[in-house]
Amino acid sequence: ATKSRARTARQCATDPRTRVIVPHREACLEPKLRTAFWILGPLGLAILAGALYLLVTTGVFVASAARARGKVTDLVESRSNDGSGTWHPVVSFDVRGESFTFQSKFGSRPAPYDIGDAVDVLYDPDDPRNARIDSFRGLWLGAVIAGALGLFFTLIAWVIWVGRNSPPQGS
Question: What pTM was estimated for this model as a whole?
Answer without folding.
Answer: 0.71
